[in-house]
Amino acid sequence: MRASSWTRRMRTCLWIVMCIACASAAPARDRGTDGQFSERRSRHFLLLQDVDIDDYTGVDGSRKFERDVLAVLEHAYDQVRDVLGIAPDASVRVVVYDAGVYDREFSGLFGFRSAGFWDGAIHVRAGVRVDARLVGTLHHEYVHAALEALGGRGRFPAWLNEGLAEYFERPFGFRGLASGEVGQLRRQVAAGAWIPLEALSGTGFARLGGHSAALAYLQAFAIVDLLVRLGGEQSLERLCERVARSGDVRRSIKRTYRRDLEDLEAELIASLG
Ligand SMILES: [Zn+2]
Question: Ligand 1: distance of its center to the CA of 208 in Å?
């Protein structure tokens, strides 16, 4: 899932425009069988969109929204295939909800305000346009879909699953930790608030409260950022293959980076200064 931390990063409008220009959505549009969702396909995705979105975008606006969402998702597919070597054969189902409907239906699922989640389908809270926030959410949730396609449900510990999702939220240009994030992590360590990675090794962060969840996502991202600094992006593909095959994260880390998990965590903390 993805916590709602809209201000954490900004993406360029250029990237969004580029995605939209590459749209490959199929032209057909059908009403869902329950009359509440419209349906649209692209090469790797099936999009179901809450028709209430028509109320404020108009049908033409809604169609544009669908095309734009699918273009972003296809770009996410390409990025994950190129970096992690994961290319699911089956179409990934994506449900886009009117923001009010999303909040009403799903606000009780998490201890923090969410923007989207994966539960076998990608569910996202829509806005009136495909903005930077929604682009980030779509990239994030697609990583969960791809990892599950590779290894099955629950195969990846939350810190790695969420850390990779956070990493791919940054689809354009520099993906490393921002200086403000390094400072935030440093303060977290100084305050004794660092969450041990072992405690982030369950299947998700859903039970964490808002503040803890934000820290957990940042820590998870920081570990993946360290993995990239140690072994390059290409090491992530080897790591994911090993975790998916064996289910043994410690051994996979050791084989890929010649370090124990505890050593990686200590190295990250030391690198914060
Ligand atoms: Zn997530």
Answer: 13
